[in-house]
Amino acid sequence: MDYINAIGRRKAAVARVYVSEGSGKIVINKREIERYFPSSILQYIVKQPLLKLEVAEKYDIKINLRGGGFKGQSEAARLAIARALIKINPEDKPALRAEGFVTRDPRVVERKKPGRPKARKRFQFSKR
């Protein structure tokens, strides 16, 4: 097995994931996961599909992340990892779906409208 690739998106973040047989090393943009995501919560979000299937020590994962903030990037990586694991073993899909790791979260920022300060906010109304 060479590697399995998958893509995950969340908000403005895009994650390209390459999964290969290995020892459980996760590299994001050529940096260790601990250096890229110093927050243990974000590290946990990325590893959730692996921990659910108990295969965290079985695969090496290389992730290319672009766009968005760190929360969106971690959730995009989670989706991409889940998709790659399903490509490797389709029987895992129901377990990952039950946890909500397979569903693409469609919520994105609403565009700014012309003549307004933000998407829905209006300028202060003055009666006189």
Short descriptors:
single chain; 128 residues; alpha+beta; Ribosomal Protein S5, domain 2; five-stranded mixed β-sheet; elongated
The assigned structural class equals alpha+beta
Strand composition percent: 15-25%
Q: How would you characterize the largest beta sheet?
A: 5 strands, mixed
Write down the overall mean pLDDT. Answer: 94
**CATH architecture annotation name:** 2-Layer Sandwich
- CATH structural fold name: Ribosomal Protein S5, domain 2
Please compute the radius of gyration using only Cα atoms.
Answer: 18 Å
Name the helix and strand elements from N-terminus to C-terminus, one letter apiece.
EEEEHHEHH
> What percent of residues adopt helix (DSSP H or I)?
25-40%
* Number of distinct beta strands: 5
- The oligomerization state is single chain
Question: What count of helical segments does DSSP give?
Answer: 4
Number of domains: 1
Shape: elongated
Tell me the distance between the termini.
73 Å
Low-confidence stretches: none
Spatially, the strands of the biggest sheet line up as 1-2-5-3-4
CATH class reads Alpha Beta
Produce a short descriptive summary:
The chain is α+β, with helices and mostly antiparallel strands and 128 residues long. It is built from four helices and five strands; from the N terminus they run ββββααβαα.
